[in-house]
């Protein structure tokens, strides 16, 4: 069973897992208020070294400052305990080989 802070569970519902890696997991989530789909990237702060965490902070800063319809945007950042949750625009992969 997944456990997320109330700040997330009160507003979002996890739909599916998208991907996982060393730092955390990316979930497909639905905002309950309007059914809008987002990606929620969870990053565990304790993994990696100082440079890796600086890279994560740089990613967060860049995503939050982007304002272009062709690029992903960070909708929201939630810090809780040893994790950072990033609510990011969701981009469905419709590519075919």
From TrEMBL:
GO terms for molecular function: ATP binding; protein kinase activity. PROSITE patterns: PROTEIN_KINASE_DOM. Transmembrane segments: none annotated. Residues 12-97 form the Protein kinase domain. This is Protein kinase domain-containing protein.
């Amino acid at each position: 069973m997944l456990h997320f802070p109330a700040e997330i569970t009160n507003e979002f519902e996890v739909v599916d897992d998208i991907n996982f890696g060393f730092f955390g997991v990316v979930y497909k989530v639905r905002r309950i208020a309007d059914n809008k789909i987002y990606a929620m990237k969870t990053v565990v702060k304790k993994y990696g070294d100082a440079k890796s965490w600086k890279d994560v902070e740089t990613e967060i800063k860049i995503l939050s400052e982007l304002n272009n319809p062709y690029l992903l945007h960070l909708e929201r950042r939630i810090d809780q305990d040893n994790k950072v949750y990033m609510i990011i625009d969701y981009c469905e992969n419709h590519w075919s080989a």
